[in-house]
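Exercise 7. Predict the joint structure of the components listed below.
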Amino acid sequence: MKRSSVKKALLIAAALTVTGTASAAGKLEIFSWWSGDEGPALEALVKLYKQKYPSVTVDNATVSGGAGTNAKAVLKTRMLGGTPPDSFQVHAGQELIGTWVVANRMEDLSSLFKSEGWNKVFPQDVITLLSAKGGIWSVPVNVHRSNVMWYNPAKLKAWGVTAPKTWAEFLTTCNTLKAKGVAAPLVVGENWTQQHLWESVMIGTLGPQGWQNLWSGKTKFTDPKVVQGFTTFGKVMDCANKDASGLSWQQASDRIADGTSAFNIMGDWAAGYFTTTKKLQPNAGFGWAASPGTNGTFVMLADSFGLPKGAKDRAESLNWLRLLGSKQGQDAFNPLKGSIAARTDSDLSKYNTYSRSAAADWKRNKIVGSMVHGAVAPESFTSAFGAIIDQFVASKNAQGAAAAAQQLATRAGIGQ
Amino acid sequence: MKGLSRDRLWSIAVLLPSVVLLAVFVYGFIARTVYVSMTDWGNDPAQALAVNPIIRWVGFANYQELFTGFLQGRFRQELVSTIFFTLFFILGCLALGLGLALVLDRNPRGEGLWRTIFLFPMSLSFIVTGTIWRWMLQPQGGVNQFPQALGLPAGNFSWLSSTEGIWKFDWNALPLITASVVGLVLILLAVRAARAGDRTRAIVSGVCAALLLGWALLVGPNVRLLPAPELHGFNLALIGIIIAAVWQMSGYTMALYLAGLRGIPEELREAAKVDGASDFGMYRHVIFPLLAPITLSAMIILGHISLKIFDLVYAMAGPDNTYTSVPALNMYLTSFRQNQFALGAAIGTILLILVAFVIVPYLSSSFRSEEGHA
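Solution:
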């Protein structure tokens, strides 16, 4: 008891000194959840920053934990307590806009975009995703693609099937594979990976424009086309493994590598997992295609940094954002992170085989935002939507799920 | 009785700081949470995290939303899951703990060692227990592979990822079920009171029972909480979590029971033997009745642990698995991920009421007996 209270006192004292010294000039505090695998990429950026601004002390305030669950809770405490970090990581788009911009706690970065000429180097679709209420709210440092279907080329050859181009074709392929004794042609993991799959099915059904209409409020979730998307998703889930909720996305990817399942829909961080951790060769150990029905569409998610109102070191923070958006910064960061640059003029020779193909698509394709990774829907929607997916997978009631999703969207303020 | 003696002043001075701290940090914050649960803080995303949020009083709207709202099916399933979890967790701990205590009470060789082994899981945190058991309950490994050691086919029960449920009932029937159960209990009380010759009590209980059952028969079937039927039951995925929880806490009940068994005077056992009681009879008529108070206090402790459980479920099945979710998890997600502070506070208040159901009768009974002794 005593020892823990001493510890607490020490922690409080430490927190006080941190906030105390942060107010001194020449300081920059960066708040992110990049630790572990992603740590070196952030380090590269910090190193670059120190080269450019040697007098500034950089305080790397990383709160570890997948997808930032812990970091977001800490951030909330700090923002509400009136001590925001100078710049913090957030998924680009509605995750920031629906939480912090609507609460009027972020600075508009439009003038920075204009002065740096970023309106020309970032694709227009991306600028649209970052914008709301007449401002642009964060600087994207990287881009990941969400609609990728991963498979095992050797196994597909052995089974005599090819990667399906539409969801209807996928269901036929699924039946063929089931007839050949593959118990689960598709592998999914825990709840968020099922939402991830739902997203790909929905975009494959509605098309990119239909998907955007859904989030701008032009199309309601109760629209027959959306209900149809839910029905298709239900059929697709019938092709999937039954122990889904116990699997992480890595464990689900393992089943592609070892050939237990034929397909997996996952973001392109899976490429990094296959090449780095599993030591597989692209196009030999693992193959990829756009998820069915989404050829020519790039479903994006991005990590970005914003500038909270009341940041103590505003000038240093703006320099940091300038670096993030620069070609040099993005090309230092992304090859290490396993993502691609949000800029269309990046130096492709620095990237691996998969990333080069993704970067080529990035320039050509129609770009839309991902729901599950915070680009088009605020967290309050995504978090509660998981329960709807779970209920739907159990009941297969498409009408009910669509009605529930619409209520959720209204509550979260989507399309208003 | 001379007012403030020196001793009294001292005792007040010593107690005051903790009383003030308790008043602010326990009761003050409980009051604040209950207040927040009756506002709309967070229902409008634009106001949730604003510098000066506009917060309006909405009364019991959040509670109504939780029990009858279209979107809150997850919460209702969690309530049902909590009840089942508490039931099986307490029964499991009591049965296993009593069994172990009875075995150890026979003074086996190396008793001290066994005691340590059985008590050891309690010293781990739920997070550690949860992580270990999550590994063991992997559908394609761990426990499911045990049969293979005996040459049998591997099991295929999906421990933490099952989506199946049993004993399902329609949430709309909940008022009906509650009224019937309470009515039946009241009838039982009435019969007992009548047998004991307490006429007024028998009549009051009898009339209440008749009213409730009459309501259940005539009005109950027509009550609709929700527009559509909504089935809730005991999710099979919870079984794995119950096993882990029982594994962790049964050592504690064993220690309690063992202390109780050792506290029974040897003369009583000998007297029973002299009166010709068999082993079974001695336990049934002498020892178990003497252990009843221990069972009660174990139930109280286990009951409030199980109602508040959070970390074990988080570690074993993750926060987003609705088939294993519990209200405490939902409270965390609602408040800190969806920023719906009022709704989260309402879930917290419901949890507090549930725990109070368990704790308050116990406190009041122990209070009363203390006063009796004084």
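Discussion. The mean pLDDT of chain A is 89.
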